[in-house]
Amino acid sequence: MSDSSDLIDFDSLLTVAERTLRDSVRSFVDSEIKPNIAGWYEKAVFPLEIVPELAKLGLLGMHLDGYGCAGRSAVEYGLAGAELEAGDSGLRTFVSVQGSLAMSAIHKHGSEEQKHEWLPAMAKGEAIGCFGLTEATAGSDPGNMTTFARRDGGDWVLNGSKRWIGLASVAQIAIIWAQTEEGVRGFVVPTATPGFTATPIEPKLSMRASIQCDVELSDVRLPASAVLPNVVGLKGPFACLNEARYGITWGAMGAARDAFEAALAYSGTRMQFGKPLAGYQLTQQKLVDMALEINKGFLLALHLGRKKDAGTLHPDQISVGKLNNCREAIDICREARSILGGNGITLDYSPMRHANNLESVRTYEGTDEVHTLILGRKITGIPAFR
After folding, report:
1. Which positions ≥6 away from 16 have C-beta within 8 Å?
2. Gap between the Cα atoms of 77 and 9, Å rounded
3. How, if at all, do strands 271-272 and 275-276 pair?
4. Peptide bond into 203 cis (omega under 30)
5. How many domains is the chain built from?
6. Quick check: helix, strand or coil at residue 265?
């Protein structure tokens, strides 16, 4: 957290190693991302040239152990995610799709051969991965997916379609989840395999400096060795989604903090009726309310991170972080935009861009409604999904 929004000495809760890692990512974002992000966002370009730099920082699969991965803690992963999303949600999403989804699926559920073949290259940024679970009519309810994999001799043949698949058009490897006669299975699919087609979804009003695709699978033939051997059922993809949801708890607060800082800086220099906006009570109330929620959001993220590192974090607790921090972050970004007035609708300032991005962040990896129902079930003991 930056000094301007830190009302509680948050840094005192972090170790030297955690602060050092965070500061290195913040420096990279400040020097390489923030000067360029407005142009990337306006042109709807994901900057592939930063992938090697993210790899050099050890951010790809950073919370995984072995196979060339950095083996950093959950808290360190979260801190890095917050700094990346302070630059732009699309950049943290890249790290999440690569590490928390695609690499995590192989690390958690793959064979030793699959791990050795893909994880070192993905950690180096030499191979990009994507994660195909969502379908056009099976988003919040992935159990109703229609993509199907059938056995054909010693091979598997996949048919179906996926939607909103991050990075698919630039990926070398896809983790595709499909129904089979024995339940949902995951498959490691090289994207060069005949029958695999990824088409970027355009135009978008959110996550413009990122890539999401429609994926078509037409008689995609794979060897038996392509299946992830160590999991059957939706618990496989859900284990990966929980990793991504945890990262969002931190990332959303990074976007909120950056929006707050933009509003604070602007209000200190924008003169109105003879004094800066920051000198007016209504502006100070907005700034204080934003700072309070940022502090609470980071404390929640840190608490969940400590529990994750201790092995005591439960999935419903991740829902607390994802639901609360996304909801608060988008409100903070909108309030920050109000301080900027008309200038706030331009790409010269970050709050409206962050707010637009957060419309996607609060939707993917479980909508507000889904996480509300998860917590409702936890509180009442009654599932209300249907």
Report:
1. none
2. 20
3. antiparallel
4. yes
5. 3
6. helix
Residue 208 has pLDDT above 90, yes or no: yes
The yes-or-no verdict on residue 386 having pLDDT over 90 is: no
Contact 196, 189 (CB under 8 A): yes
Domain shared by 263 and 179, yes or no: no
- CA 103 to each of CA 65, 76, 81, 135, 309: distance values in angstroms, whole numbers, following the listed order: 11, 17, 16, 21, 19
The letter for the amino acid at 359 is E
Whether 212 is in a domain gets the answer yes
Q: Which of 49, 117, 365, 369 is labelled catalytic? A: 365
In this prediction, residue 4 carries a pLDDT of 86
Question: Residue type at 329?
Answer: A
Q: Give a yes or no: residue 285 inside a domain.
A: yes
Question: What's the pLDDT tens digit per position in 248-258?
Answer: 999 999 999 99
| Chosen domain end from 123, 150, 178 | 123
166, β-bridge pairs: 212
Please indicate whether residue 365 is annotated as part of the active site: yes
* Amino acid identity at 246: Y
Helix (H) or strand (E) holding 235: helix 235-269
Host domain of residue 75: 10-123
Rounded to the nearest 5 percent, the helix, strand and coil shares of the chain are 55, 15, 30
